[in-house]
């Protein structure tokens, strides 16, 4: 039986390490066959899923970390209201990350055995 874990990230992609650490843990758990992982990005965290980020050498690329989660079977939803508030279109999202809704977050919360927030 698989364990279902939902990650909810709120912090911006850069400036703090909360979203970075949330994606690190989500990515590590997504690699395990006994887990099903879903990641919901809201608030400034929607910026984590913007494709093609240019960061200085030595900095982590959160878009690549989102892609790694996706490659290992995780689902990634981005709050549509939060995207609109920041002028972000779905065409800017990396990989299979997609625009989502609060209603879907509610469904994912009920689906999950465990909810972890960063």
TrEMBL record:
Gene3D superfamilies: DsrEFH-like (3.40.1260.10). InterPro entries: DsrEFH-like, Sulphur_relay_DsrE/F-like. One of its GO terms (cellular component) is cytosol. It comes from the Bacteria. This is Uncharacterized protein.
